[in-house]
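USER: Please consider what follows.
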Amino acid sequence: MLDHYDSSEFTHDGTTRTVFVRGEGPGIVVMTEIPGIYESVVEFADRLVDAGYRVYLPDLIGTPGKPFSNGYAVKSMARACIAREFHVLASRGSSPITIWLRALAREAHKECGGPGVGCIGMCLTGNFGLAMMVDESVMAPVLSQPSLPFPFGASRRAALHISDADLEIVKKRVAENGCKVLGLRFTGDPMCPPERFDTLRRELGDGFEGIEIDSSNDNPHGNPGEAHSVVTRHLIDEEGHPTKAALDRVMSFYAERLRPA
């Protein structure tokens, strides 16, 4: 699964993690969802490589290359909940791992050049793109089913897992530099409630583009009620399907931001 990726270690501020790298072109940091770097995540990364990007796939959760299973997902979630790198209930603060991810983004920009790098977070890592956007190297953040903080209570349902100070920097980049944020979610996803996208629209205005895919009962597209992973496990790769349209928008978003005319 990862045989065609180069593996290296990246260290920042005493933290070292494995990063799988492949491709040529502008850099994109792909942050895995629960349970880890499994088949669908690698398939998404491969799409980016095929489209002419250099992918940086850090090992953040689970066992790289291990196939998806419900049991594996539960165990990975449990480990993440107690790991010091992830603050799963923090409403107005980012997980500590985002500091390391910002440094990785800077390294990717240094290696690849261009106007900046892209990133995508999914599920547990979904909102990390906002915290990474504090660094000017990050030009194209995608938030796919951002699930932190875990939506226990009204305030957490609407929270963004970023400090007030960092959010002000993000808002300034949007207002003064024309930076954009793309978000994806299924309408029935309890882990990524609509209030979270409402907050993004209120805070970022036209700087936030939210794509919400119908997963209600008897929806015309056949999306299951438990649909969660927009560009990976619950992607229906068929023209005309809204998840395929969302994937296409992710690709065009990166092209707009990382390959300007």
Observations:
- The domain at 6-258 is CATH 3.40.50.1820 (Rossmann fold).
